């Protein structure tokens, strides 16, 4: 091959020089901060920092969860106390309403008995009234009849009025 056919680098750098350059590039240099070994140490430090951040986050989350659970237990206890108070109040109201219902039922039965008695009395009085009306018709007919007109009608009417009262 001629020099015109070869790349420019091959003409300038020999094989041993290339190997030396390559070895220099691959070996870590303590003067350069971004060397491979320091990058590895840096990654380890970052991992340690991240793990300590994770531990802190977990600890904070655990504390937050405990606090949340404590608040939840407090709300549950408060709700139970409220329900117990409401149960007591409703039980007292229920007892009072039961007593009132018993009184109203007793009163209703007494009124029904009184109503029945008054209906019977009404029927009895209606029968007496009907009987008295019949008597008045007989008395009125007797006063108009010429054969009976001699009887003292004023006395009969007065006695009829006494019966009505």
State the helical fraction: over 70%
Structural class: mainly alpha
Shape: rod-shaped
Number of domains: 1
Order of helices and strands: HHHH
Give the percentage of residues in beta strands.
Answer: under 5%
How would a textbook summarize the main sheet?
Answer: none
- Give the number of DSSP strands: 0
Contiguous low-pLDDT stretches (5 residues minimum) are: 160-165
How far is the first residue's CA from the last residue's CA? Answer: 162 Å
What gyration radius follows from the Cα positions, in whole Å?
62 Å
Count the helices. How many? 4
Q: What's the rounded overall pLDDT mean?
A: 78
Explain the overall architecture.
With 165 residues, the protein is an all-alpha fold. It has one domain (37-164). The chain contains 4 helices and no strands. The protein has helices at residues 8-12, 15-26, 36-144, 153-164. The longest helix is centred in the middle third of the chain and has 109 residues, at 36-144. The N and C termini lie far apart (162 Å).
The gist of it:
By secondary structure, this protein is mainly α. It is 84% helix and 0% strand. The protein contains 4 helices and no strands.
List strands and helices in order, with pairings.
Blueprint: H1 8-12, H2 15-26, H3 36-144, H4 153-164
Q: What features would you highlight for this structure?
A:
single chain, 165 residues
